[in-house]
Specification:
Its cofactor is thiamine diphosphate. InterPro entries: HACL1-like, THDP-binding, Thiamin_PyroP_enz_TPP-bd_dom. By secondary structure, the chain is α/β, with parallel strands linked by helices. Helix content is 42%, strand content 14%. Strands 2-1-3-4 form a four-stranded parallel β-sheet, with helices on both faces. Helix 2 links the parallel strand 1 and strand 2. The protein is globular, with a radius of gyration of 15 Å. The chain starts with 8 loop residues before the first helix and ends in an 8-residue tail after the last helix. The mean pLDDT is 85.
Length: 132
Amino acid sequence: MAAGEAVSGARLVAEALRAQNIEYMFGIVGIPITEIAVAAQAVGIKYIGMRNEQAACYAASAIGYLTGRPGVCLVVSGPGFLHALGGMANATVNCWPLIVIGGSSDRNQETMGAFQEFPQVHRHNFLQNSFG
């Protein structure tokens, strides 16, 4: 990356995950998160497309259990995030490392009925009770 070169947020996320030795990402790509999946593959993370978000999150949590490094689950906002909750709860209860990245609508569209708008962070931030 050259000095002064514009870098996308998706690329920064992918590079941060790769710096943490993340090897696998599971999920279903959709409008808010497609760029992250593409950027992850560009830095060498294996993206595994699944049929639904619940299965993707369980697979990511299983990778966390098997490797001791966080598994990553990539989901769209709203219903995609909600479908991942079972896998998130399972990983939390079992103390398995898991990162869930959920898409969102643009901030300037909040409360205007944006695509799959849902305040997922505010609704589910109780699940993050420890880091490290």
